[in-house]
Amino acid sequence: MTAASTPVRTPVRAGAQTPRRRVRSGRGAAGKSRAERLAPYVLVAPAALIIGVFRLYPLALGVNFSFTGDGDRNGQAVGFDNYATLFDDPLFLASMRNVGLLVLLLPVAVAIPGLLATFVYMRVPGHRVYRGVYFFPAVLSPVIIGAIFNLLLAFDGPVNALLGAVGIGPVDWLGDPDVAMYAVVAVHIWATFGMALVVFLAGFATLDASLIDAARVDGASLPRVVRHVIVPGLSRTIQFVVVTTMIGMLTSMFGLLYVMTGGGPEGSTYLPEYYIWFQQGQMSRPALASAASTVLFGVMLVVGLAQIAVLRRTGRED
Amino acid sequence: MSPLRAGRWIAAIPMAALALATVYPLVFTANVAMKTRREYVLDRFAPAEGLRWDAFATAWSSADMGRYLANSLLVVSGSVALLLLFGSMAGFALSQLRFRGSRVLYLACLAALFIPFQVIMVPLARTLGQAGLIDTYPGLILAYTAQFLPFTVFLMTSYYSGIPAEIIDAARIDGNSVYGVYGRIMLPLGRPALLSVGILNALFCWNDVLIALLLMPSAEHRTLMVGVTSLRGQYSADIPTFAGGVLIAAVPVLVLYLCFQRQITAGVTAGATKG
């Protein structure tokens, strides 16, 4: 039995008197020692402390930092100065423009694995092999992927050689400010589509196969089956993939950027996470970096809230 | 032939092309690593003239990949051990024991799941610095544990809530304490989930570069992935050695994937179906 095959239950219901949660009352309240009563707290304590001190508390601390100064004004309250600096900084504005670009490319990043999952589900010849092969880059570090694509996308590398063979001139993939961001996003999609594919396939497993069979017997074309049977049946999976893909693009491209472009050329491949690292690690401006972190968190909050809103709406339709 | 049947064969063509595009970059890199510098400059696509392992040996010794590998192994095994221990303890308590505040703790854990590292990295680095934990192994292990603990607790809680309370009741009647139930029942029963979550966490920690870059500045403490990022500058004129170093870093993950493909995909989809 794997984690995935276990039926899901509401994990915690502290107040409810469900009969199956009787561990503590197994031998009646009178028979319990003090140690037994404290046991649940002892078990939870390490996780609660670590999560509280190193995940939740820093969030508040960071928002606080963002309203203090850097350098000479270290520790002093400066109001919204950092945010003003941020939105005056062409690098930060470039990173926010790139976030907009990611949002525009999101449908592509979701449609590719969705379509491939449909093919795998339809048992295209060789589908078992494909599934394993496609997922493989998803386990490699962005650093390794970036290093490999540094070779592949070099001006005299294989990709340009292949394009040259069909008569398309060499492209300076990572050196042209108008191209570099697209190149990095394409590599990111190449590296992660297998992850979304596997999630889609888990969603397909819950689809009612007889509906698809019925559509097939009626002679429906593939695009019609996808549009009228598969997409409505997978709405929850699609939402999950949309949100995780967006979060992935916002928070796991650092390795690629660091190795492939270093934010360049001309700052054209900055993303907020790279900007935060740059200000903190290279420029020693933690307060400014904290302000950028807070903005990034705001962006992610919007993504999360949008998801909840969509989930609510479909929940009502169910 | 139904349209879907025909569609299958048409779909097989782009699928095969994509599978090729997925595998080729690695094959290309491996081929480059087998070449001499001269071979690479003359023709980077032709198959290497023979199986040469010099590039790997050079990367291992003079680029210090061996030391970085040892650093990574130490940090990853420490982090995964802590994650599994703390994650299973909390998962057991949150799913099977009733106590005041358990719901709040569970919700706090869920909230932490949605805080990316980039958002908290500045204050976290400062806190760890004040505790004297920057550039130390315990500091990095602690950072990884904190980073992936919410996910681990979440998955262990949902796995353990599928275990019938009768099993636990029976163990209690046999005279086990709560800790006895954890050690004798929950840990053995949780093995499949622990394996799956453990492998995923090992991958996450192994593949990370941002956290290690931020918290382990000195060269001798570099993890393998940080080591890979420094290869490029070091071997810009010796691409075969560069490729060899990259592959050394990729091989452990490759092996892990080939051995545990099922557990890895199960872990990924568990996050999806339970989110």
Automatic annotation (TrEMBL), chain A:
<dbReference type="InterPro" id="IPR000515">
    <property type="entry name" value="MetI-like"/>
</dbReference>
<keyword id="KW-0472">Membrane</keyword>
<keyword id="KW-0813">Transport</keyword>
<feature type="region of interest" description="Disordered">
    <location>
        <begin position="1"/>
        <end position="31"/>
    </location>
</feature>
<keyword id="KW-1133">Transmembrane helix</keyword>
<feature type="transmembrane region" description="Helical">
    <location>
        <begin position="179"/>
        <end position="207"/>
    </location>
</feature>
<dbReference type="GO" id="GO:0055085">
    <property type="term" value="P:transmembrane transport"/>
</dbReference>
<dbReference type="Pfam" id="PF00528">
    <property type="entry name" value="BPD_transp_1"/>
</dbReference>
<dbReference type="GO" id="GO:0005886">
    <property type="term" value="C:plasma membrane"/>
</dbReference>
<protein>
    <submittedName>
        <fullName>Multiple sugar transport system permease protein</fullName>
    </submittedName>
</protein>
<feature type="transmembrane region" description="Helical">
    <location>
        <begin position="99"/>
        <end position="121"/>
    </location>
</feature>
<dbReference type="InterPro" id="IPR035906">
    <property type="entry name" value="MetI-like_sf"/>
</dbReference>
<keyword id="KW-0812">Transmembrane</keyword>
<keyword id="KW-0762">Sugar transport</keyword>
<dbReference type="InterPro" id="IPR051393">
    <property type="entry name" value="ABC_transporter_permease"/>
</dbReference>
<feature type="transmembrane region" description="Helical">
    <location>
        <begin position="133"/>
        <end position="155"/>
    </location>
</feature>
<comment type="similarity">
    <text>Belongs to the binding-protein-dependent transport system permease family.</text>
</comment>
<feature type="transmembrane region" description="Helical">
    <location>
        <begin position="240"/>
        <end position="260"/>
    </location>
</feature>
<feature type="domain" description="ABC transmembrane type-1">
    <location>
        <begin position="96"/>
        <end position="307"/>
    </location>
</feature>
<feature type="transmembrane region" description="Helical">
    <location>
        <begin position="38"/>
        <end position="57"/>
    </location>
</feature>
<keyword id="KW-1003">Cell membrane</keyword>
<feature type="transmembrane region" description="Helical">
    <location>
        <begin position="287"/>
        <end position="311"/>
    </location>
</feature>
UniProtKB/TrEMBL annotation, chain B:
<feature type="transmembrane region" description="Helical">
    <location>
        <begin position="239"/>
        <end position="260"/>
    </location>
</feature>
<keyword id="KW-1003">Cell membrane</keyword>
<keyword id="KW-1133">Transmembrane helix</keyword>
<dbReference type="GO" id="GO:0055085">
    <property type="term" value="P:transmembrane transport"/>
</dbReference>
<feature type="transmembrane region" description="Helical">
    <location>
        <begin position="104"/>
        <end position="125"/>
    </location>
</feature>
<comment type="similarity">
    <text>Belongs to the binding-protein-dependent transport system permease family.</text>
</comment>
<feature type="transmembrane region" description="Helical">
    <location>
        <begin position="193"/>
        <end position="219"/>
    </location>
</feature>
<dbReference type="GO" id="GO:0005886">
    <property type="term" value="C:plasma membrane"/>
</dbReference>
<dbReference type="InterPro" id="IPR000515">
    <property type="entry name" value="MetI-like"/>
</dbReference>
<keyword id="KW-0472">Membrane</keyword>
<keyword id="KW-0762">Sugar transport</keyword>
<keyword id="KW-0812">Transmembrane</keyword>
<dbReference type="Pfam" id="PF00528">
    <property type="entry name" value="BPD_transp_1"/>
</dbReference>
<protein>
    <submittedName>
        <fullName>Carbohydrate ABC transporter permease</fullName>
    </submittedName>
</protein>
<dbReference type="InterPro" id="IPR035906">
    <property type="entry name" value="MetI-like_sf"/>
</dbReference>
<keyword id="KW-0813">Transport</keyword>
<feature type="domain" description="ABC transmembrane type-1">
    <location>
        <begin position="69"/>
        <end position="260"/>
    </location>
</feature>
<feature type="transmembrane region" description="Helical">
    <location>
        <begin position="68"/>
        <end position="92"/>
    </location>
</feature>
<feature type="transmembrane region" description="Helical">
    <location>
        <begin position="137"/>
        <end position="156"/>
    </location>
</feature>
<feature type="transmembrane region" description="Helical">
    <location>
        <begin position="12"/>
        <end position="34"/>
    </location>
</feature>
